[in-house]
Amino acid sequence: MNYPTQPKASHFINGAYVEDTSGTPIKVIYPATGAVIATVHAATPAIVEQVITSARAAQRAWAALPGTERGRILRRAADMMRARNHDLSVLETHDTGKPYQETSVADAASGADALEYFGGLAATLTGEHIQLGEDWAYTRREALGLCVGIGAWNYPTQIACWKGAPALACGNAMIFKPSETTPLCALKVAEILHEAGLPAGLYNVVQGMGEVGGALVSDPRVDKVSLTGSVPTGRKVYAAAAEGIKHVTMELGGKSPLLIFDDADLENAVSGAILGNFYSSGQVCSNGTRVFVHKGIKEAFLTRLSERLEQAVIGDPMDPATSFGPMVSERQMEIVQSYITKGIEEGARLVTGGARLDRGGFFLQPTVFADVTDDMTIAREEIFGPVMAVLDFDSEDEVMARANATEFGLAAGVFTSDLTRAHRVAAGFEAGTCFINSYNDAPVEVPFGGAKLSGVGRENAKQAIEHYSQLKSVYVRMGDLEAPF
Ligand code: NDP
């Protein structure tokens, strides 16, 4: 490590590191070894009060700045993140266990993209003029006020930036609570934003478990909540936000379908299935974990997939050659193991993998089940690990009905060389993000989010601005005003 994993203090509030050791200790564990690499403390009620008070106090002056000035700070932070990509990637690898081969291209890099993109948009935020005969009205696009971001553990740097960048661009203050499993990376995002010139109080990080998130969400001084997490947590957070009629963005779980037709380029289809199931050891919300393969090419697909999986390099995540790392935690590993057991018990055919690796840390083999049927647990529930379920299909109509027969709607993909079928299938998917002959791209320029239980609202792209700002309408009368008496 170029710098120690133990942060200077647990929280970042009002432009500085803050500690309160009376909060419950949270041990940070390196998933590749099981070693404790840092300890932070959950926020106490006093910390929650301090962060809300200082964030609210800072927000109005920030919103009053020209967008160009807000944007300049975000773009400077983006440059700093890119310049520090190596150190940030090493930290992300220690926080999550994801291989450096991934983190060095996907995490701080994606965060920097968000800061740069929304930094650029900040100066473009305007209202409009509406002529009404001689009278007229105009709209002002205004900040919401104080936003709370709550993150999952799979992309701690990216999530901290995807929520922080649009919030700050629109003139809001942000309090971010990382997952207790990965508390380290968001602190670095806060540090960099402040070094880039962000005034104190506007981007804060507080640690804690669900109850800290709950305290933030239910505070009447908070105007908006953006959660990345599971559907059960989403239900709780959405309900708490509803009490205060707060704005929400919910980025929740999925069980996304990936359709492979018999006219697809097989090698590309196998690549898509690998990217959509085994990147980040399968801990990606939009993963295409129900892989529907046309009966005619099923065995050829499974053969090539197994050959390609043998090329996975599993091991020390800091070795640049490693392409497959551990599960984020022992608990997550056990959850995934229980799904593998269920898959076997319910009669799915284990094609490859299925076992824990005989080494320290929380390593599981990339696992593929074939002959999976729609009613099996592994085809219905989000596993959030490296477990692919391969199902067969005969016709487009049949597979579309089955692909959409889920309560989730985060993502979906199709591999085919038939142009019209590709677009017909994409139009028919009940999902927020779809891929044609690709899987899991997430550029900041494109809206990202879910349909059905997978979420509400969109992150990224111009659409995120709608979710971090509100319109005020101002009516202007030019002549005399008539009244009935
Ligand atoms: P969880 O839902 O368990 O937790 C998400 C966050 O919410 C954590 O910071 C958690 O804190 C916090 N939290 C838990 N309970 C409450 C509460 N009552 N009030 C406020 N906050 C609370 O998700 P995981 O961290 O396990 O992440 C995995 C899930 O996230 C998967 O379902 C995955 O699909 C989803 N996800 C969705 C993405 C998307 O963009 N749609 C992207 C990435 C992941 P703590 O961890 O400390 O308990």
TrEMBL record:
Enzyme class, UniProt record, top EC level: oxidoreductase
Q: Which UniProt keywords apply?
A: Metal-binding, NAD, Oxidation, Oxidoreductase, Potassium
**Gene3D superfamilies linked to this entry:** Aldehyde Dehydrogenase, Chain A, domain 1, Aldehyde Dehydrogenase, Chain A, domain 2
Q: Please list the GO terms describing molecular function.
A: betaine-aldehyde dehydrogenase (NAD+) activity
Q: Where is the Aldehyde dehydrogenase domain?
A: 17-474
Pfam families xrefs: Aldedh
Look up the EC number in the record and give it. Answer: 1.2.1.8
Q: Which residues form the active site?
A: 251
Q: Which domain of life is it from?
A: Bacteria
Family, as annotated: Belongs to the aldehyde dehydrogenase family.
Name of the protein in question: Betaine-aldehyde dehydrogenase
What is the organism field in this record? Answer: Ruegeria spongiae
